[in-house]
Recover the amino acids of this structure.
């Protein structure tokens, strides 16, 4: 079950070059491609003639041509040409999807009915265009349902157990961090502050700290993506709760788009401010983030395989589950609202 | 659903040396082997004792010996020996299949009832024994149902999109070729003629043409196999519709035998006449044909995976589907006739 | 269907070092680990919080700590610590299993009800601690149900067909061996004697024989494991039926523990007495036994795949099946007795 009438992340703009891309969203196979006008379009990934994936075809100025018998489709989904045949039947078309590109993120609108149009703009993510930051990212694939990734990102207490090699740090401090959970509309915010803690490996590799650090983790959940603002300053150097704070900043974008009921696309970027004396630190931040998210993937996929083994086993909640559980209730409500 | 009481291709004679071969036909696992008398026999691939595949066993003068406890089976399916035991129970036997070898093609009769005998000879394919041609072939496996391969072979308009590297040529000319579809009994014939067209890569690699060519494609569909006679002559050098035509001739045999409901054996040979100045052209013809059929396999398997994704999506027909659709109706009728 | 209220083999003591081991027994995923006190414990392999396998966690003095949020479990299954949380809910626990280590074999009690306690000691296997023998072993995995492995071990007549490279020997002699089958309680014994036979490769590689040998095979089946005492002496050198017989002795332990309905753990050791002039013969015996059991695995897995192909095909019994069939009846009875 998925919440519909929502924008979901479909990719990053830099992925779309001369070849179409096949991706399934919410159980619907879609082909995405750059049009002759330079925008990005999305169609049902199936030729209406003999069902070959259109993503096996080739891009032309006017659209996407099927690789079997050459039917040509416009970005609107209409068939423009059936080679060797004059008349093009009215049924010769495939379903189009509405796409919006914003801050280098490609969004797709997943309507509750075919043809349903967006009732709002695609989300903004200004960090990608903020000159104070540089960013890089990647697309990962999970053999696990999307909500397990939400759980993971909304509960950073796991850093001390899962990510000791990168952004972890002392497990005890993480589990006892001052934590505040806020809810507003369909957004859940989890705010965590850890004064005077040891800097973890990624932080010392990317920034110069004098010793202990004041560390913050501010997570904002939205159905389709999470924004995570983490960072640290030298202990006592200023308020770590103030958005104008100094020090080292990592800003994560996490697009979590269901592929199927049991698999998920994970579109992430990490942005950081640059330390004046460390020109290469962005490479370090990217590599350590990639490593961190690979560690999460190992844990979450193992968790899901085990949930399948123990079908009806009960789970208990602990103190870290407040944020994840609120997000789950928002999703349940959005699913109910768009189901009927 | 399969048409029964039919000969299907089970292999090529050259495949049968000192080891038995396991192959499933129409969901029935079969072991094929060369007997002590040099003929080829086929049995249910299961020892009647503890169900080991007989294809794991070893060939002897009198038959096939199971590799677990040594039960020996005659080509008739009767158990001839149970080592260490005097009495051989009457039930100690496995189901035999009727096999016929003709023109180096191994045919198996698939009856509607176990024990049902052929009511006709296995098909002839005289090209294999025609001194004007030399031929080579191979056995491919498809993860796709057999009818998608029929569709592909009965509709050569796809050559201009799928096989540009080998036998393709100009897509437009292919899609606009003069095409005639004939039906006679259980045979469908698709005849296509393309005067004054560009010779495709395989043709120029295998023959000497002066410039443009008159090109023909004559396809004959039979439930179990297709015979495809293609070729070309210098443009204007004589009628391309006359069976006595000169020039370059490629004659394809395409045995399409269902393995299961969703997979297929594809037994193909290609025969060509030899250009007097090009002694090695048969190697070229074989290699380019192998490449061509690998391209078809990629397309058809992608098509089938996508059909599974889009379970109930409708398909539209275009002008090239006349031949394939007639073949499908013949198969439907043959299935109905042998089902009851 | 499995017989419950039984000890099954869970591993060998030497496997348990600094990391926990995940193994599924009778469809139940279990984590096994060495405790701070040096004993071996077994728990349900699932954190009660978010279902991560506990086998992904780390061992500590007090127990096993989950690798996601750090919950610490005692060998009893009780959760001892939830980092960052004072109160530990009563439901924070996982199911423990009773384990017993005897003669370097790790046994697990599989009760018919969670919490059910053993009503007998784990089986003894004194050969492992008998100074006349040295032994080595390994753990194999079968994609086949456990009873096919029982069949194989209770019927050594297959040696002449499957194991010609190691312990086979003349197939005819094997199939005609004098064979006696005895049953006592839940134990089946198959005794086979082959006077004046050719020594097989493993025997000549591990011992000095003058020529022909008197060879014995004594198999004892128990639900959870088989003990197989094979060996040979120079032909005529003394009674091969007398437990005090001389010559070359191989004693096999074969723990056969269902993993799932369709897969099995196979825990084996082979012990041999040492020939005074052949110091390295134990390596030979081990390597040839490993090869032998790999040959069995190939046969049995092929057999099972074929049984799935031929769902309802009948099987016939031959003279070698007396022992295996008695074992099957004992298992059926034990399953009935513990099912209700």
């Amino acid at each position: 079950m998925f919440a519909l009438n929502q924008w979901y992340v479909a990719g990053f703009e830099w992925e779309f070059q001369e070849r179409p891309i096949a991706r399934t969203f919410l159980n619907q196979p879609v082909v995405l491609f750059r049009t002759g006008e330079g925008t990005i379009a999305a169609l049902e990934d199936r030729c209406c003639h003999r069902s070959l994936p259109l993503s096996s075809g080739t891009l032309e100025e006017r659209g996407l041509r099927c690789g079997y018998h050459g039917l040509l489709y416009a970005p609107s989904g209409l068939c423009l040409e059936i080679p060797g045949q004059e008349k093009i039947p009215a049924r010769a078309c495939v379903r189009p999807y509405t796409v919006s590109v914003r801050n280098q993120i490609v969004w797709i609108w997943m309507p509750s009915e075919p043809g349903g149009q967006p009732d709002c703009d695609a989300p903004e993510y200004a960090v990608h265009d903020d000159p104070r930051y540089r960013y890089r990212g990647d697309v990962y694939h999970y053999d696990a349902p999307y909500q397990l990734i939400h759980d993971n990102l909304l509960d950073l207490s796991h850093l001390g157990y899962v990510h000791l090699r990168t952004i972890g740090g002392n497990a005890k401090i993480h589990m006892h961090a001052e934590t505040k959970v806020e809810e507003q509309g369909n957004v859940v915010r989890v705010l965590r502050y850890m004064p005077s803690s040891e800097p973890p490996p990624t932080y010392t590799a990317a920034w110069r700290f004098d010793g202990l650090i004041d560390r913050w983790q501010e997570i904002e959940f939205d159905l389709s993506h999470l924004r995570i603002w983490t960072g640290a300053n030298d202990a006592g150097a200023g308020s770590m709760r103030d958005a104008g704070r100094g020090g080292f900043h990592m800003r994560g974008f996490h697009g979590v788009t269901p592929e199927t009921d049991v698999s998920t696309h994970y579109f992430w970027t990490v942005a950081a401010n640059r330390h004046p004396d460390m020109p290469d630190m962005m490479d370090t931040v990217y590599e350590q983030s990639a490593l961190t998210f690979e560690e999460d993937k190992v844990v979450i996929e193992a968790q899901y395989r085990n949930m399948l083994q123990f079908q009806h086993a009960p789970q208990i909640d602990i103190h870290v589950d407040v944020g994840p559980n609120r997000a789950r209730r928002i999703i349940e409500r959005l699913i109910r609202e768009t189901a009927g």
Q: What stands out?
A: Chain B touches chain C at residues 24, 29, 44-46, 48-53, 56, 66-71, 82-85, 89, 91-92 (CB under 8 Å). Residues 131-339 of chain B form a domain with the Naphthalene 1,2-dioxygenase Alpha Subunit; Chain A, domain 1 fold (CATH 3.90.380.10). Residues 107 and 207 of chain B are 33 Å apart (CA to CA). The two ends of chain B are 12 Å apart (CA to CA).
